[in-house]
Amino acid sequence: MRVELNGREPGIAELHRLVELNYGHYTAFQVRDGGVRGLALHLARLADGAEELFGHRIGVEEEHRLLGLVRHALGRVRDASVRVTFVPGPGGDGPPDVLVSVADPVPDPPGPPLRIQTVTYERDLPEHKHRGTFMLDHHVREARLAGFDDRLFVGRDGRIREGTAWNLAVWDGDQVLWPQAPVLRGVTMVLLQIAMTMNGAPWGLRPVSAADLTAFPGAAAVSADGVRGIASLDEVPCTDNRLVKMLAETWAEVPLDEL
Questions:
Q1: Is the pLDDT of residue 114 over 80?
Q2: Are 109 and 15 in contact (CB under 8 A)?
Q3: Domains 2-103 and 114-258 share a fold
């Protein structure tokens, strides 16, 4: 892995400060052959978070600077997992620092189907991809201790929210459904919705209750890593693989934006 802070390798004191910080926001994406799907959406996410969490507006010049920082961290690497994180600067009251990390790309497809456990939980500031990930890691750990792979969050109102780091898509036999609730609007989810609209594939957005989950024959986890099948929701098997196949094929058709 390579990590750069504002375009350079951070010093020991800076790394120590970054480790202690629990404030900020980020976006994560896969670089494939030097390109990124939904690059403008990732930049928009960073801009929204910077204004909400730091009171900092990002203009066109700073967008170009951000892209330059990502390119510098990548170097000649053409395939990678990239995370761009905004963290408080040393004084805490100025523009945020930019941390770019580059790691190996995830496999394509991203892995075998997941066994998902539902749990009542609501993320703070769910519309932002922020650094408050302690409870997310805790839920992944608890799920694995219980014999599952990950968890799906249900709000106190009984409505399905999102996974620990992914959006849920389900197949009702006629169309793809995305649960309508306070969640992070994942870039992959938004790009899939746009692509399905352009392809004429049926999809909808509506509230989904935890009790509804038993009625869906297929489900998928959609994230920055791509589309991953879901084998079961709690103890209910998801046996219809058409949803995963259709979403994966649609995702493969989304064009790459050159960095």
A1: yes
A2: no
A3: no
